[in-house]
TrEMBL record:
Protein name per UniProt: C2H2-type domain-containing protein
Organism from which the protein derives: Ignelater luminosus
Residue ranges constituting the C2H2-type domain according to the UniProt record: 52-79, 80-107, 108-135, 135-162, 194-221, 222-249, 250-277, 278-302
Record GO terms (molecular function): DNA-binding transcription factor activity, RNA polymerase II-specific; zinc ion binding
Coiled-coil regions listed: none
UniProt keyword list: Metal-binding, Nucleus, Repeat, Zinc, Zinc-finger
Domain of life: Eukaryota
Subcellular location: Nucleus
Keyword Zinc-finger: yes
Pfam families given in the database record: zf-C2H2 (PF00096)
Length: 319
């Protein structure tokens, strides 16, 4: 009976939870909110108008980040790749929606590399591959399965070990490798800005500017000789053709595994180093890729995220 009284209009002697006194005042009207998130929601709904037009179709938005996201719908570029099945998407939200399908498809997800499995026995067998390292460096805890790579790595800790530097022709700076030299050279080009007249994006090199312009024009000059599929950038075509040639030219120097693109090697190396750069803000657990982190959030913290979202979007008119 007491439960009915608590939810009825009748007076109750039971203690009630009082709502906090409104302390956030809207600068545009007399509205008062109990929390800052409610005030921000109120201002976004009532006072902020859609005044920013899309330069392509004229559709108006409230914020610049909304235009930036919307512009991707006008291009054929798909920069977001699923690390579980290699499907590509125009927006991060599209990739996130797709990742939910893997939750249904893969009952068991490896948090070391992101690979998913339907059968538990396959998952357990796979997990053993992450614990098969036989050689551990006593200096930095790096793990190796291959003795030759392990011995090569040990030499880097010797007192007289020196890596041959490369020199910048412009400023004579000494860099440890050709890769770092390539990144360094970009610092000399930062004053040379190429500005896109469609979306306003600034590019540091002419080649990157030309490639970016193709996003808006839809031009795809690099065609695959095997299937006729076209691409905006030459490196996109190169990586795509590995599907047909079965070539995997990028090698892990630790265990000898081969991959079709450098980014896959970067993610794979985290298995050896133990690096987990993507942290869950809720439980502080680390993950090898952003996709695996997002899947973790939806599988483990779905209810908590729903509660947080509900609290952030509460009706500010309720007092």
């Amino acid at each position: 009976m007491s439960r009915i009284i608590l939810y009825s209009n009748a007076q109750s002697t039971a203690p009630s939870l009082e709502k906090p006194e409104p302390s956030f005042c809207c600068p545009d009207c007399s509205e008062k909110s109990a929390t800052y998130s409610q005030l921000r929601s109120h201002r976004n709904k009532v006072h902020i108008k859609k005044t920013l037009p899309c330069p392509v179709c004229g559709r108006k938005f409230k914020h610049h980040f909304e235009i930036k996201s919307h512009l991707k719908t006008h291009s054929n570029e798909k920069p977001y790749t699923c690390e579980l099945c290699s499907k590509v998407y125009k927006t991060s939200s599209g990739l996130l929606f797709h990742s939910k399908e893997h939750q249904k498809e893969f009952k068991y997800l490896c948090e070391d590399c992101g690979k998913g499995f339907v059968v538990q026995s396959q998952f357990k067998k796979h997990k053993k591959t992450h614990s098969g390292a036989q050689y551990k460096c006593k200096h930095c805890d790096m793990l190796y399965k291959n003795e030759d790579y392990y011995l090569k790595h040990l030499k880097t800790h010797e007192p007289n070990y020196q890596r041959q530097p490369v020199t910048c022709d412009i400023c004579n700076a000494k860099l440890i490798s050709a890769v770092t030299l390539k990144h360094h050279m970009r610092t000399h080009n930062r004053n040379c800005k190429y500005i896109c007249d469609v979306c306003g994006k600034e590019l540091t090199t002419l080649s990157s500017f030309k490639a970016h312009k193709r996003i808006h024009s839809g031009e795809k000059p690099f065609m695959c000789d095997f299937c006729g599929h076209s691409f905006i950038r030459k490196n996109q075509l190169k990586i795509h053709q590995f599907i047909h040639t079965k070539e995997k030219p990028y090698l892990c120097k630790v265990c000898g595994a081969h991959f079709t693109q450098p980014s896959s090697v970067t993610v794979h190396m985290r298995q050896h180093t133990g690096e987990r750069p993507y942290k869950c803000d809720i439980c502080q657990k680390g993950f090898v890729t952003k996709t695996v982190l997002k899947i973790h959030l939806f599988k483990v913290h779905t209810m908590l995220l729903a509660d947080i979202k509900k609290e952030a979007t509460d009706n500010p008119d309720e007092k």
